[in-house]
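Annex B. Sample input.
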Amino acid sequence: MQPHSETDELRSRILRELRENARESYSAIATRLGITRRIVTQVVQEALQLGELRITTSISSDLLGLERFAYLKLTVDGIMEPVRAALLAMPETTFVADITGRYSIDAEIRVGADPHLRNAVDEIRALPGVQSLTMHLYESIEINLYSPLRTGQGGFVIDEADRAIVQHLQQDGRASFRELGVAAGISPSGARLRFERLTANDAVKVVGIPSRRNKTDFPSLGVGIQARHSLERTLERVRELNPEFLAVTIGDYDMIATLTADSYEELIAVTDRLRELDEVAAFETWSNLRILKEQYGEGDRIRATPRTRRRGGRADSSS
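Annex B, continued. Sample output.
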C-alpha cells in the first residue's frame, strides 16, 4: 500500500478529531490543525455524504438497563450469511465483524440481568452453521472511543427534558442548543447546561464513527492479551498504544483490545510496540476483515429508572 498523500493525511486528521466528540466546532478543529474552517466543513460534509462517517449519539449501558458484557468468537461450518444476518438482527449485539484466523466471525453482546446472558449465548450457539463458540466476559471496559463509560457513580437522575434532548441528539448529533431547547421545551442555555451534565456524567456521548463496512482503508486488529505480572501495570502500558477499545476480561485473555490506524504500515508499527512490552506475557491477534455492525445504544431508549451496581468490588462500566 502506498503512503498516504498529504491530502489523505489531512483528511484523516480532521475526521479523527470527531471520533471522541462529534460536536466539536469546526473552527476549533481548524485552529488546532492550522487550516481554514471551510476545509474542515468540506471534508466532514463529503465524508457524511459518501457514507464514510456516521455522527451518532451513544447512550450509557446502565441507563439502558444493561448489566453484563461479553465478547464472542464463532467458528462456522458452511455458508456464513445466515449466521451474519442473525447476529446483526439481535438487539444484544453491539459489534459484529468477519475476522481472520481459527474463528470466522466475532460479536460483542450487552445484556440485562441473568439469565439474559445465558439465553443470548444459547440462541447464538443454536444458530444453524455455528460449530463452536468461545466467550470472554468483560470485567470492566477501560476504553471505548465510541461509547460513554460509566463507573458505577450513583445518584444520577434524568427527567423528561433530558430524554427529549437525548432523543433529538439521536436524530441530529450536531443540533444547536436552540434546537435542543425547542425539543425539550426549555431555553437554549438550559439545554446547554443539561447537555453538559449528561456528558459530564457519561450518560451520553456524541461521536463520529468511521463507516468501516466493506472498507479496507481503516485497518483494525483485535488483540487478546495475557499479562506477565501486574494487571494494572499491563493496562497502563497498553493504554499508551491508544487502543480504540480496551477491556479487562475473564477467560483465556486478561484483556481484549482493538488497535486501529490510518494505514497498515502504522498498524504494524503499533503491533511491534505491543510485542516489545515486557508487561505482556503473550498475545493473539485477529484482523477485522469487515466490520458489519457498530451500534452502542444509539437506537435505544433510556430507562425510566436508571441504575448502577457494583460487582466483585469493581464498578461496572458501559460499552
